[in-house]
Amino acid sequence: MHFVEAKGILSAKNGMNLYRGCTHGCIYCDSRSKCYQMDHDFEDIEVKQNAPELLERTLRSKRKRCMIGTGAMCDPYMHCEEELQMTRKCLEIIERYGFGLAIQTKSDRILRDLDLLKSINEKAKCVVQMTLTTYDEELCKILEPNVCTTKRRFEVLQIFRENGIPTVVWMSPFLPFINATRENVEGILDYCIRAGVYGIICYGIGMTLREGNREYFYAELDRHFPGVKEMYQRRYGHAYEITSSKNAELMKLLHDTCRKHKIVSNMGEVFDYLHKFPEEDYEQLSLFS
Questions:
Q1: pLDDT in tens, 62-81
Q2: Do 102 and 129 touch, CB atoms closer than 8 A?
Q3: Of 13, 14, 276, 288, which is most buried by a Cβ count within 10 Å?
Q4: Tell me, what's the pLDDT at 235?
């Protein structure tokens, strides 16, 4: 772990990453790709130590409230968050200034901040996003070794539903020959139904591979699934998009199930929901507060 002074904290679309790198150890992680120009070991977490100060300065100067997103490139609840509490400090600022939050994680550490997330949702809007990839618990421990399993994430989703906080599930990636199966998709969808999620984001039954994460992924395949790397190389060569032969069948299953249970699976609609700040509702509430 090392510390840096960041020049800015919010992207043009109000996204925020407090850390760079990750300690969850997911074998498929795209963030390892060299295109992101990380000049340190992936597990040597870069901490933007001045992020809370930058965020407060930025939110104070914004003319209109909006949704702040975090977790897209780097999980805000990695192991170092227990000690540093950078995420919590930034949530306190978001809550204080009345902004909304769309936060994405794989970790049950998010429950530590349930009080803040509830307050943000009451003042404006909070959407919690959880990534679910692997229904089988033992397989999940191989693919995502240093973070809580899918069953626990499902329990976290239930807790947020009980506290009135809407949730969205990212169903990706699916690894051909490993978890790109009907049984896996059905299991995750059952969790989504039982947790009452608002929507599901799924780009397809597959994954991406490019320089940096391909080499790591293949090494992990050799370690845990001997012979599977060669299956990837024969079928996909050096392709970036790795799509399962079951893509059409399983995406139909996903969309049909979502329609039946009134879960939004149109990605454009889900992203609109994540980015839409309830400005009119907020202003009306402010008039009577």
A1: 999 999 999 988 999 999 99
A2: yes
A3: 14
A4: 97
Strands 46-48, 19-20: pairing kind:
antiparallel
Residue 219 pLDDT: 98
Degrees, nearest 5: CA angle 90-131-231: 135
Would the pLDDT of 281 be above 70?
Answer: no
Q: Which of 119, 18, 14 is nearest to 77 (CA)?
A: 18
Cα–Cα dist 19/74, whole Å: 6
134-143 pLDDT tens trace: 999 999 999 9
Q: How far is CA 218 from the centre of its chain?
A: 23
Q: State in Å, rounded, how far the first CA of the chain is from the last one.
A: 44
Give the span between the Cα atoms of 220 and 236, in whole angstroms: 17
Q: What is the mean pLDDT of residues 199-209?
A: 98
**Residue 285 above 60 pLDDT?**
no
Whether the full predicted model's pTM is greater than 0.85, yes or no, is yes
HEC assignment per residue over the chain: CEEECCCCCECCCCEECCEECCCCCCCCCHHHCHHHCCCCCCCCCEEECCHHHHHHHHHHHCCCCCEEEECCCCCCCCCCHHHHCHHHHHHHHHHHCCCEEEEEECCHHHHHHHHHHHHHHHHCCEEEEEECCCCCHHHHHHHCCCCCCHHHHHHHHHHHHHCCCCEEEECCCCCCCCCCCHHHHHHHHHHHHHHCCCEEECCCCEEECCCCHHHHHHHHHHHHCCCHHHHHHHHHCCCCEEECCCHHHHHHHHHHHHHHCCCECCHHHHHHHHHCCCHHHHHHHHHHC
